[in-house]
Amino acid sequence: MEISHFLDQAWLARIPLLKGLGATISISFLSIVIGTFLGVFVGLALTYGGAVLRLFVRAYTDFIRGTPVLVLVLASYYVLSTIGIDLGPFQAGVLALSVFCSSHVGELVRGALQAIPQGQTEAAKAIGLTFPQTFAYVLGPQALRHALPAWVNTAAEMVKASTLLSIIGVAELLLRTQEVISRSFLSLEFYFFAGFLYFVINYGIERFGRYVERKTAISS
To answer: What is the mean pLDDT of residues 69-88?
Structure first.
């Protein structure tokens, strides 16, 4: 009886739950893509930048990594508005998660680049490659293989961190689930269901990482 009741309520709430799931996927995807893109430049600056640039970027990464994600979310939504930058809840949430992601990806890229023997960079210079060409053809592919497992973990963290956006009114999966629970009073069932959906998203990210890992693996 309980299962049939839950299924009935889940069917009635399918539209808001699907909208919440779509919002979670959109937020996570944008945050991961933007954060990874920015993180590559952060990692390059930490590894190859001048002293002043490295100092500035190091301060940025240490500050962001040491700040709770919730504080970044609230700052993006409330603090920026006080200086004339009015962002909606969705945009503010994506901004906060992207900034947080970029600091972590930057450290991953830095560690991956520093793990590559210096002789490879010198050899690339010797054959006349520019730095962008060296990164694209020599350093980048190797750094990708080094950073990929940790990047998958970071991407999964972004999905879980998206639940914090409900506090600024983003109608993502958790908030939609709470709204359904307030009407149906089936808290345990719907929280388990939401947890399963988050697992599916993160499992998809893990499988994508495995796919890229296989494609970039060096044949023995």
So the answer is: 91
Instruction: Note the pLDDT tens digit of each residue in 170-207.
Output: 999 999 999 999 998 889 999 999 999 999 999 999 99
CA distances to 112, 125, 134 from 129, rounded to whole Å, are 20, 5, 6
Phi, psi of 86 (to 5 degrees): -95, 110
Burial environment of residue 119 by CB neighbours within 10 A (0 to 12, 13 to 18, 19 or more): exposed
d(Cα 151, Cα 216) in Å, to the nearest integer? 15
The neighbour count for residue 208, using CB atoms within 10 Å, is 12
What's the rounded Cα separation, in Å, for the pair 181 and 186?
A: 6
User: What would the pLDDT profile of 2-22 be if each residue is shown by its tens digit?
Assistant: 788 888 888 989 999 999 999
The residue type at 140: G
- Give the tokens for residue 37: 């893109």
Give the span between the Cα atoms of 3 and 21, in whole angstroms: 22
